[in-house]
Amino acid sequence: MKTCFAPLEGITGFIFRNTYHEFYGGIDEYYTPFISVNQTRKLKKRELEDLLPENNRVPRLIPQILANNTEDALAYIRMIQEIGYDTVNLNMGCPSGTVVAKGKGSGMLRDLKVLDNFLESLFYGLSTQFFEPVKLSVKTRIGIRDMEEAPMVLSVLAKYPIHEVILHPRLQKDFYKVPVHKEVVSSWQQTLTAPMIYNGDLNSPRDVQDICQSYPDLQGIMLGRGLLWHPSMLNSYVEARNNTTEIPSVCPPEDPKKLKAFHDTLVARMLETMQEPNNVLHRMKELWFYMGCNYPDATKPLKAIKKARNMQEYQLAVRSLFLS
Ligand SMILES: Cc1cc2nc3c(=O)[nH]c(=O)nc-3n(C[C@H](O)[C@H](O)[C@H](O)COP(=O)(O)O)c2cc1C
Q: Are 294 and 261 members of one domain?
């Protein structure tokens, strides 16, 4: 079963992906945060930089797009193919209000007739306009407001030659909080011919074991926040499995030296590459929102990180955190 690192906008750019892979590894496939397709049909500098093969040192990278217009989507898929990718992932899960309002992300699930037409013309375009074939995978939620929508979403997806379906079994209205509706996994697996990757709330080695044992036919699992809270979570799972020891239900403590080295390398690389130190500050604050759980007694330094106005204040706060 392959392991995938979920796309996390604002966090998992190429510097994070490379550094995570170097320090923790164990991931077969990484996904880019979404590239929002628009009428300009041009990749932004930041998006291009994130995609360039020479910037990426991970085993496999899948670019993700967020789209609501077939022709624009095909234009972006073509640009992404020209950079060297043979697979593109379509985001049908983003729950944010502004994205949904544009009919993108999980907004694609609002009107299933529109979704059906979109997929029909997208797959038609992929089969007729491309010299070299491109595979399309989707990352989807199961509906907007009601569990009764799930079988209808499934029946639309089942019509198309989707390469892989990444299933995040929540409704749009659930955002990221309410428990995942794991009960739909089996019926989706039975109906879809496309292989399935499960995503959602794999936050401990035991969670990983449970999903792998409950659904052995999955093509893969995708992990997101679990690896931000506990970067070595998957390593702990693999280690316990290989040693045939009990799989822990709580993440073992992170190695503090390794976490510090990971952090310091990440910050140094971001400062080297990103022109605006405040962007580094912003990204690191996002990351600490998750990684901070490894320092339960360091309330003061964590607060200082959150409040830091520049990189100097940030570095001071982080130093005291690592000494705590
Ligand atoms: C801060 C943040 C940013 C995200 N950005 C994206 C994104 O760009 N594309 C996407 O498909 N999902 C995105 N997601 C959703 C995650 O990929 C994932 O589906 C979600 O966090 C559930 O998985 P997890 O419980 O393993 O974290 C984002 C989630 C968060 C919390």
A: yes
Same domain, 236 and 308: no
Residue 247, domain member (yes or no): no
> Is 118 within 8 Å of 66 (Cβ atoms)?
no
Q: pTM above the 0.70 mark?
A: yes
* pLDDT single digits (tens) 229-240: 999 999 999 999
Cα-to-centroid distance, 100 and ligand 1 (Å): 15
**Ligand 1 contact via 9 beta carbon (within 6 Å):** yes
Largest Cα span, the chain: 60
Q: Give distance in angstroms: CA of 177 to centre of ligand 1.
A: 12
List all residues 6 or more positions away from 266 whose beta carbon is below 8 Å from its beta carbon: 15, 16, 19, 284, 287
What percentage of the chain carries pLDDT values higher than 70?
A: 100
Q: Which domain holds residue 313?
A: 256-323
Domain count, the chain: 2
The residue out of 213, 242, 271 marking a domain boundary is 242
DSSP per position, 26-41: --SEEEPPPEE--TT-
Do 91 and 121 belong to one domain?
yes
Mean pLDDT for 96-115 is: 98
